[in-house]
Amino acid sequence: MKKLSAVLLITILIFTGCSDETTTFDVENPRVDLTMEENNTVISNGIKNDSNGILSIYFEHEISGKSAGLLSKSTNDFHLNLVGQVSRPAFDTNSNLTATHVDYQDNFAYVSYNTVGQTYAGAVDIIDLSNPLQPILVSRMYMHDRDANVILYDNGYLYVLGSVDAARIFEATDESYIAKIGVFNGVIDLNDVNYFYQQGNTATGITKMDNAFFVSSGEDGSIAKYESASFSKLKEITFDDLRSVASENGRLAVLDASAGVKILDSDLNPISQITTSTNFSVDAKRTIALKANQLFIPEGEQGTGVYNINTGELEERLPILVDPDNIAFSDKVTNAIAVNGNTTLMANGGAGLAIKVTNDIVDLMGVVELSGSINYVVA
């Protein structure tokens, strides 16, 4: 697995092997690793609004645990407003980039991209959401010889994670990388860039807890703990194939494609394990979520499993509600979950974006009227 492939939806709710190949390095013309988009026309036309408007939501009313059918819900009670669609980046010969991840902090959305296939190329967008109804693309950075799978903003820096073409990059000690990039008010500082490398074929997740960063990496990879300021590695534990990491209340949850979810403390000591029956394809991206004592696990065609993090018991299963025609069975899968208060969002691939709303009065689950394959969501 070279990378994790995904298509992105940003939803705002109120938002050991040898090789015979010889690698040569041109000292007089060093490789350019990162570049910024300087064409103002590209930046100004980066966000389209031709499909904007309130999206219909079709809720399935649940009565005594039995489905009463899909019913259209009044948009006056609950609604989502589509406010823009971001045009995919393209540079050099790289025109098939797909969005992989998004972080939303301090009125900015930070979006990462990679490429399908064996080409290593990525990008980062920064979108100003000060006015939620008028998103503005303010920066676009291109990454040569690197894919970007995950992105996180923290305290003036972007942390971009993914896979690197180690055969072309002299300093790369492993295929998984973390780039720490300075950014201020949406502007990226290419003079403030540092790279760190971790075992595994690609970095798959990052979370911050107790002044430390925790990074997961994929096949033949690990979970590693880094000191937050210097990003020096404090500890590392190997795993077969980690796809995601999440943290809350002094605990880490790591999703291992070979064993399910393992719960660790902040020193990476094991606490417990939750076994899942999910089948993971080589390139499947899965993003888990934590809320209080509940762990939300995307379980492919089975939908989302909601587990008690203390007992490991399955408390609830959120199914994939619709079965669209004319798409492959492998596209009808839950890939990611986002939890925001009483609202849970499920990125269900070709089955679209599902939403569950729970409070003292209602317990409803529905489907948002969006076309395309929805493979990542953040709220």
State the main characteristics.
single chain, 379 residues, mainly beta, 7-stranded antiparallel sheet, 6-stranded antiparallel sheet, 1 helix, 30 strands, 1% helix, globular
Structural overview:
This protein is mainly beta and 379 residues long. 1% of the residues lie in helices and 50% in strands. It has one helix at residues 40-44, and strands spanning 34-36, 47-48, 53-55, 57-63, 66-72, 80-82, 85-86, 97-105, 108-115, 121-128, 136-144, 150-154, 157-163, 176-184, 187-198, 203-209, 212-217, 219-227, 233-248, 251-256, 260-265, 270-274, 289-291, 294-298, 304-308, 314-318, 336-340, 343-347, 353-358, 363-368. Strands 16-17-18-19-20-21-22 form a 7-stranded antiparallel sheet, with no helix packed on it. The protein has a 6-stranded antiparallel sheet with strand order 5-4-30-29-28-27, with no helix packed on it. The radius of gyration is 21 Å and the shape is globular.
